[in-house]
Every structure is written in structure tokens, then in C-alpha cells.
Model the fold of this input.
Amino acid sequence: MAAMQFGIFSVGDVTVDPTNGVKPTEHERIKAMVAIALKAEEVGLDVFATGEHHNPPFVPSSPTTMLGNIAGRTENLILSTATTLITTNDPVKIAEDYAMLQHLADGRVDLVMGRGNTGPVYPWFGKDIREGINLAVENYALLRQLWDNDVVDWQGKFRTPLQGFTATPRPLDGVAPFVWHGSIRSPEIAEQAAYYGDGFFANNIFWPKEHYQKLIAFYRKRFAHYGHGTPEQAIVGLGGQAFMAKNSQDAVRQFRPYFDNAPVYGHGPSMEEFMAETPLVVGSPQQVIERTLAFREHFGHYQRQLFLMDHAGLPLKTVLEQLDFLGEEVVPVLRKEFAIGRPAGVPDAPTHAARVAAKAAEAEATEPDAATV
Amino acid sequence: MTAPVRIAVVSAGLSQPSSTRLLADRLAEAVRLGLDGQGREVEIQMVELRELAHAIADNLVTGFPGRALRDAVETVTGADGIIAVTPVFSASYSGLFKSFFDVIENTALAGKPVLIAATGGTARHSLVLDHALRPLFSYLRAVVLPTGVYAASEDWGSGDTALTDSLPGRITRAAGELTALLGRAAPAAPSHSADDEDLEFLPFDQQLAALRPNA
Done:
């Protein structure tokens, strides 16, 4: 079992390739995302996560449809989200869709909950953005009940009450998908993750590390406060972003037009400034290794590292080459190096099999001893 | 021994030398004199937005401040009082001036005394103080002083008239209002520094309880 999981997360943007003006169709982009996921498994990565968006230029509005297709074509890859909109989706539908996916994928499913990045998505789905945090809190509380209890009676502020409702199918082996909570800014979400003993995922892309250090330290402290273990035993996932070539000058030259025109940060700071201020690495695989290993110093030992590799109009062929670098040169070294000095008490990255085993062990420990009855 | 009073002076002048900076310096000096008179030590920190123009635009694009801009924002949000001076562009504050306050958290200036001032070619734009700057800082819940100072080009070469104070007179009056307010108030804790150890949050059981029906 892997102490740490490595993988990629995709926003699913359709963006013009600034070097040649080519814009993929939605169909091409969707197929490319699947090809990228299959490649991730082929090069030995552990996780593929897709975003969820309900507006152009993004294609992944229906994550479980896409992940279901990938599940049928892979053996080991864990399928995840980055992020699932816990605010605007009906928690009943999330419970059912992801339980179904969990069965189809034989347990290779987890989710990152998020609140979305587009204001109008709230009114489009009949919600009020000012209730964003409250929606995340109440919807997730219901989702937990739907997964953990066979029959649910529910009344809340935001949804039709449920009486005697059973979400179907039931989670595989009675163990719901593992949940991470993602947040860029809100301590309330770190608090929520800590309260449930869930994972916390920091996308770690747009802001300087000090910002995420504060959020993660807070999550770890509150995880311990709620009795789930020591702060070091909290489950932390991080994003990261890289573009590689054999030598760093080539990487800089090839990536610069994509950086300069990227929808999220283009036309702003220079690539060099952005690399100095954020985790972006444009350089050799060795530079990516060094930068990523430093995350452990900043955030403590952690469980999952995802990289953003396929955005800003990078053509599929280039992305697949990047995944070769990642799978063949970067991740094997990271696995080895991260294992060095990792204390025994730091939990392994969550998998379905391990969580089923843990649940069985817990049931055994709490069961009254039959011989004494 | 009380801590020095920290005054942040934000100047959005673009030319060098700049009459906006000149006005900012006169105001800062008048405030220093006033606080000296009360026996208070003063620390005046100048924030020249011209030097931060790229960084402010970058922040608008990326959503986070670079190091130099972060320092400037912390200077302003950590100050006990603010002197904010802009040139008038197209009947309002300059875009750079507005953009700087756009990248500051909208609660970070709450309760802070702000002395507003502006410069322009003619006196015809002087109501920019009350039609543009005052509403901006009211929105930010700052305490805007009653006297704002507007300096037209002609003010730099004229004295008192029967109807109005000269520019130095207006500077003295505005600075007096700021020093009076700061003299009464204890120095602000740097509560909005980005290096805050503790994040503000509501414990989760309270968060959940607030959502119970009939709560």
C-alpha cells in the first residue's frame, strides 16, 4: 500500500493553443481528458481527478459520467474530483452517483468537496451565493447521513425534507468514498474537514505557500482537537503545477507562451515572478522533484500530491509527454524520498481496501466477546 | 512609554515630482507636528502607488499580492491612521488609487481614521473629495475626517482670501482633526496582518447548530 499517492487534476478548460491558434472542440477536449487519465495509469500514477464546472470554456459538468468511463478502462487508478460542488448539487444525487461509481470502479473512488469558482452557478442551480458556507455545511451533513445510515429522516434549511429515505446503491462494502474538503481561503472548510476527520486538500496553485501553511496548520490543529489523532495524523493533500523538459531552458521557452496567455494568471506577473511566489515549476524533472520535496518541509508529511498538467491550451501530445516525465522520472524519486524519515504514526494515503479493513478491525474490537456472554 | 503612532500615507501621484506627493508630504508633516505637540512619537510610512503599479495589476489578475504589494497593504492595514491622496482623473480618483484599495480586504480598514485629499488642475473638481473619496472610505467603514483637502494648481501660489482658508490653513485644520482623533485612541493592534497566527472561525458544532430547523 502506498504511503503517498501521486496523480493529476484537471480543470477541463477548452483554451486556444496560443502558439498556433488551435482551439479543440468540446468533443476533442473531453476525449483528451480521458486519454490523459488512461495515460496516468499507464505511467504508474495513482490518481486522476476532474473538476466540475457548469459554464464554458469548461467541459466537465458531469464528473461521474467521465470517471465511470475511465473506471471501465483502468485497473488501479483512483478516480477523484477537484472539486465536487457540495453547494449547488443535491446531496442525494451526490450520494447516489458516487456510490454507483464506487461499485463500478471497485472502490477506486474518492471526492474533493468544494464550493465552485463561478458566482452565477449558485442562482443557476436555485441557490443563494451568500449561503455558500452554510450550503457546504448542511449539504455535507446530509450526504454523510445518506452514506452512513441505511434509512434517513432529514429536515434542513435548504432542501426538501426526507422521511424514510434510502440512498441507493448503498456504498460498496458499507464504506463510503473517502472525502477531502478543498478550500483556497475559508477556515470554515478546514474546520469542517477537521470535525469529520476527513482529508483537507489545498490546491496550492494560486497563492504563496504562507497562505496554505496557515490553513493546513489550522486544519491539523483542529483535527486533533476533535479527537481524530495527532495533528501529524491529519490527512493532507496538495496541488502543484509543473512543466518539464530535459533541460530547464527548453522548458521555460516552451511553456512561456502558455503561461503568458493562461486564463487564470496570464497577462499578469512574469513567469519568473510567479514561480518565485507560487509552487509553479517550469524546468527539469530534477527541479520539480526538489520543489515538491520542499512541500514536506512547509506543510508536514502528507498523503496525496496532485499536479495540474493539462491546461492553458497545451496540446494533448505535449500533456502526454509531460506525464511521461512525471511517471518515469519524477514520481519514482518522490516516492522513495518521501518515504525517508516518514514517522510510523503518519497515516498512509486512504484507499477503499484499507478503510474496509480498518472498519472490520474496529467492529471486531468493539464486539462483545461471545465466550463471556 | 506608549508605542509610536503609525501613519500610512498613500500617494497615487504619477509624475515626478508630483503635486499629489507634495500634498501628501505636507499633510504628513502637519500630522507629525500635531502629534509631537501631544508628546507622541510618530512613525510615518509612505506608500507610493506608482512603484506598485505593476504589482497592483498583477494582483487584480492573479488574486494574490506579490511581496512588495503585500508589505504595502500591511503598512496600510496595520496603521493607526491613514492619509490618502489621489490626483483627479476623469472626475474621480485615479484608477490606480481605486485599484489599490480594491485589493485590500474590504473589512481591513474598518474603524481607521482616514484623512482624504486630492489634487487637480483647477478647483472645479474639488467635490471629488465628497462625491468619490468619502463614499469609498465609508463603504470600507473607515472613519473619514470631516475636512478633506483639495489642492488645485493655483493653490500652490495663493494665500488666504476673505472667503477661504489658504492651502496651508486647510492642511493644518485637517491634520488637527486627525491628531485629535489619534490622540484619543489607543494605537491599533496590527490585527489585519497577513501573518496572523490564528484564523477567525466558528467552531463546527455551532456552525451546524445554526442550521437546524427552528434554530
Observations:
- The CA atoms of residues 161 and 167 of chain B lie 11 Å apart.
- The first helix of chain B runs from residue 19 to 37.
- The interface with chain A takes residues 54, 57-58, 60-64, 66-67, 194-196, 199-205, 207-208, 210-211, 213 of chain B (CB under 8 Å).
